[in-house]
Amino acid sequence: MSVDVTGISGRVTTIRIHRLGRLAGLKEGDWDQRCDFLIVVDRGGATYGASFVELKKHLTDEEKPLEQLRHSLPLLEHLCSARMQDLIGRFLAPPPGVVLDVGGGPGRYGCWLAAEGYQVHLVDPVPKLVEQARAASAAQPDCPLASAAVGDARSLPHGPDSADAVLLMGPLYHLPEREQRLAALREAHRALKPGGILVAKAVNRFASLLDGICRGFVDDLAFVDIIRRDLADGRHRGVPGTTRYFTTAYFHRPDQLAAEICESGFHQEELFTVQGPAQFAPDLDSRMADPARRAQLLDLIRQVERESTLLGAASHIACIAEKPTQDT
Ligand SMILES: C[S@@+](CC[C@H](N)C(=O)[O-])C[C@H]1O[C@@H](n2cnc3c(N)ncnc32)[C@H](O)[C@@H]1O
């Protein structure tokens, strides 16, 4: 495997991992399941699949640049993170304030918000990811994370009414049972101050269908089975015994995400498409790399971000909700 890293000066634009063919073609045995990693697959000149998967290559010397890339994740500007930053930037009260990044992984959003002036506490159940978050935090000594700890969204170490905002951008799709997700949401509610903001991200029920059709995965009958099961009950399962495709997860219908959040005590919940109609743009990488074209794209998505008829048409949905105050 050769790795050609381009555009990593200041803002990462493109990471190409050649000869992987497509995400489905990752060779089994070359990978283990130790950490989140960003993989962008280059197929026919277009770059696809900027997504976290729980895979890590055993590195040889010539592949060490991949390891360095992991530490560059806070700089990455692909569509999903650009959109989430856009939403978070518009809905969080200005700094300073306390933010809990629950399921914060290697600290991509947590470190960004710390650099913006928030007091950020990151929690993640995977010790290796917490280590990475600490390393990313140490790399910005003027504005580090306030803390990074191993923990679970369903049992947070933070006191009640202590946070101005909670990010739940991961746990809701890694908790397959409804009761588990409600437990995570109730914990977020408990930790928030009245009037505090929840930013939740979920994988859309139709994500594998969209990916399968738009990226050609439907040529693999095992993937078609996955799609059928996802559509039936939202319980996404990878191919048993392999690391092909996305890990086991839960895929929400948009209305179901809003209902779970409402049931956990929040109000004023609003749903947003994350990638919107830009998700499958053929020239997405070059468009995101050009500041003017990127700004235009983000502005166009913003125009339709709350359009209910588009909520099911991209991989991720976000929900922003408030913990009610005594008056509301
Ligand atoms: C796809 S990653 C997202 C990381 C980060 N929030 C981001 O958006 O860059 C999902 C994260 O959720 C974490 N996670 C899974 N189950 C969790 C749980 N029960 N409580 C808290 N975090 C969890 C995983 O360890 C992983 O770091």
Question: Which features would summarize this protein structure in a list?
Answer:
two-stranded antiparallel ribbon; 328 residues; 27% strand; 2 domains; 11 helices; binds S-adenosylmethionine; Rossmann fold; 9-stranded mixed beta sheet; alpha/beta; disordered N terminus
Record the SSE blueprint.
Layout: E1 3-6, E2 14-17, E3 31-43, E4 46-57, H1 64-71, H2 79-91, E5 98-102, H3 108-116, E6 119-124, H4 127-138, E7 147-150, E8 163-169, H5 171-174, H6 178-191, E9 192-204, H7 207-215, H8 221-233, E10 235-236, E11 249-252, H9 254-263, E12 267-273, H10 284-289, H11 291-304, E13 316-322
Parallel strand pairs: 5-6, 5-8, 6-7, 8-9, 9-11
Antiparallel strand pairs: 1-2, 3-4, 9-13, 10-11, 12-13
Bound molecules: S-adenosylmethionine.
Residues 36, 52, 102-105, 108-109, 124-126, 129, 152-153, 169-171, 174-175 line the site of S-adenosylmethionine (SAM).
The figure for the number of domains is 2
Bound small-molecule species: S-adenosylmethionine
Termini Cα gap: 57 Å
**CATH class category of the largest domain:** Alpha Beta
Describe the protein's architecture and organization.
The protein is an alpha/beta fold and 328 residues long. Strand 6 (119-124), helix 4 and strand 7 form a beta-alpha-beta unit. It folds into 2 domains: 3-75, no CATH class; 79-205 and 253-322, Rossmann fold (3-Layer(aba) Sandwich). 34% of the residues lie in helices and 27% in strands. The model is unreliable at 1-77 (pLDDT under 50). The chain is globular and about 50 Å long. The protein has helices spanning 64-71, 79-91, 108-116, 127-138, 171-174, 178-191, 207-215, 221-233, 254-263, 284-289, 291-304; strands spanning 3-6, 14-17, 31-43, 46-57, 98-102, 119-124, 147-150, 163-169, 192-204, 235-236, 249-252, 267-273, 316-322. It is built from 11 helices and 13 strands. Strands 5, 6, 7, 8, 9, 10, 11, 12 and 13 form a 9-stranded mixed sheet that branches. The longest helix has 14 residues, at 178-191. The protein binds S-adenosylmethionine. S-adenosylmethionine (SAM) binds at residues 36, 52, 102-105, 108-109, 124-126, 129, 152-153, 169-171, 174-175. S-adenosylmethionine (SAM) is lined by residues 36, 52, 102-105, 108-109, 124-126, 129, 152-153, 169-171, 174-175.
